[in-house]
Design the sequence.
């Protein structure tokens, strides 16, 4: 009888197996740039200058409200993203920021850009890492374009466009 | 003779031998869930190295240890199940299938009950560890997350992430006795070894509520770092350690003065944290660097980083007692 119940339970399981909440997702990319770390950090640190190295961004509007610094990114494809600077650490050459709201299909997105010397002399390694959830945080069924894969693909697209853009800007001139 | 009494005698003798001999006994092991690798890293705390990697279900997060039964329970959030690990062989020996999303786990002091917080169905399951198909359900609040049990096993304390409270549950009836209001988005909870104080970590408020268990009142709110998730208490109860996921740090609290007294830089996005009495160290999982940071409690310094699997979380009490 026990075995029968177990088999029955196993057959029924797939009907409910979709029920799980959103898990935090991670995208991490890095690039090596042939330029001095201080030069690369100066570009990254400039919170209002993102359009200079992230191609999908048409313009960046910087706003300081009290102790907080925000930027509104206007995208070439349309739509905006509002982000808040959490910290720029000159000693560690690390920037932390978060998305407040916007067209990227993510929730609770916060990211860190770290600038480090090496591997070789005159070289800099930049690591960009984000933690976020999918756009739709409630129980499935998940609306199209708001699932884990859409979130990961979107963030990966940003990093894959931005890091080469940063490299080009830093190595140029 | 009850098994609890026997184990009390055993641990007293072990502690006495340790004190007399001055030689370190076998150290405990840490069971670290790697959300991104679908595995558990087993760390030997004598050498601070991973000695085994155990495949479990998908997206493992929570962990709870039953020392006498020599079992570790792992919540597989994305495959809706609990993996049961035999901590002597470091192998999965069983899997409990559920319908909801298990995240937080805690074992009762007598090890007869595994409490599972299903934060999607807003339920806590009380599972009989000897007969895992036998389950009772408690409705406790919204998005139940971290849990601890009182020393006598009679009360379960549950952080309700989306109702900003800690539910006090009578474990015999599984009825909520009271709700204690805390800060916004409480996730992890910890209880002092003497059972008198409860600490609730409020993710959005960047604070910890100190709760007097006897009165059920919050007696202090202490500011910590950015987006704190979890807490652990030292063996003497004099220090509380809190992981700050966005501050990449651990805040050290003195609960007597109700102040944060130190902030320790650790590896990125630190989450699950547990104090180890055997070596007076704190271990904290790093989701961002795929490591466990090791902190020396006497100096409040990070000593080392132990590489584990991807996106380590280790949510819960993750250290299994040493075996002699």
Sequence:
């Amino acid at each position: 009888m026990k075995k029968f119940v177990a088999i029955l339970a196993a057959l029924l399981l797939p009907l409910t197996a979709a029920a799980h909440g959103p898990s935090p997702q991670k995208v991490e990319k890095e690039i090596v740039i042939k330029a001095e770390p201080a030069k690369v950090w100066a570009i990254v640190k400039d919170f209002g200058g993102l359009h200079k190295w992230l191609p999908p961004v048409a313009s960046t509007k910087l706003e300081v409200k009290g102790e907080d610094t925000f930027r509104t990114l206007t995208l070439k494809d349309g739509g905006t993203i509002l982000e808040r600077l959490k910290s720029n650490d000159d000693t560690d050459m690390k920037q932390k920021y978060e998305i407040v709201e916007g067209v990227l299909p993510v929730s609770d997105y916060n990211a860190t850009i770290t600038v480090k010397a090496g591997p070789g002399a005159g070289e800099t390694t930049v690591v960009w890492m984000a933690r976020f959830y999918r756009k739709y945080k409630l129980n499935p069924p998940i609306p199209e374009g708001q699932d884990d894969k859409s979130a990961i693909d979107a963030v990966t697209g940003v990093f894959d466009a931005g890091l080469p853009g940063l490299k080009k800007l830093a190595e140029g001139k | 003779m009850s098994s609890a009494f026997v184990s009390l005698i055993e641990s007293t003798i072990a502690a006495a031998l340790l004190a007399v001999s001055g030689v370190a006994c076998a150290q405990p092991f840490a069971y670290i869930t790697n959300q991104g690798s679908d595995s558990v890293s087993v760390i030997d705390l004598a050498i601070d190295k991973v000695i085994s990697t155990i495949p479990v279900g998908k997206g493992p997060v929570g962990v709870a240890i039953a020392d006498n039964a020599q079992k570790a329970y792992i919540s597989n959030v994305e495959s809706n199940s609990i993996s049961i690990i035999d901590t002597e062989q470091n192998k999965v020996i069983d899997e409990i299938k559920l319908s909801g999303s298990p995240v937080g786990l805690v074992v009762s002091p007598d090890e007869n009950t595994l409490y599972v917080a299903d934060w999607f169905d807003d339920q806590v399951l009380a599972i009989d560890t000897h007969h895992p198909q036998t389950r009772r359900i408690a409705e406790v609040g919204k998005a139940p997350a971290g849990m601890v049990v009182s020393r006598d096993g009679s009360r379960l304390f549950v952080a309700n992430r989306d109702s900003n409270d800690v539910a006090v549950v009578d474990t015999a009836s599984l009825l909520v006795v009271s709700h204690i209001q805390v800060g916004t988005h409480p996730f992890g909870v910890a209880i002092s070894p003497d059972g008198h104080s409860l600490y609730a970590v409020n993710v959005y408020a960047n604070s910890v509520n100190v709760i007097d268990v006897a009165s059920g009142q919050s007696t202090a709110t202490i500011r910590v770092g950015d987006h704190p998730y979890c807490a652990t208490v030292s063996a003497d109860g004099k220090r509380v350690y809190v992981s700050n996921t966005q501050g990449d740090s651990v805040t050290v609290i003195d609960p007597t003065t109700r102040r944060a007294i130190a902030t320790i830089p650790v590896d990125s996005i630190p989450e699950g944290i547990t104090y180890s009495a055997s070596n007076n160290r704190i271990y904290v999982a790093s989701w961002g660097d795929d490591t466990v940071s090791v902190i020396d409690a006497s100096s409040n310094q990070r000593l080392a980083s132990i590489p584990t699997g991807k996106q380590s979380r280790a949510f819960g009490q993750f250290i299994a007692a040493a075996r002699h």
User: Anything to note?
Assistant: The longest strand of chain B covers residues 49-55. The longest helix of chain B spans residues 3-21. The two ends of chain B are 21 Å apart (CA to CA). DSSP finds one helix and 28 strands in chain B.
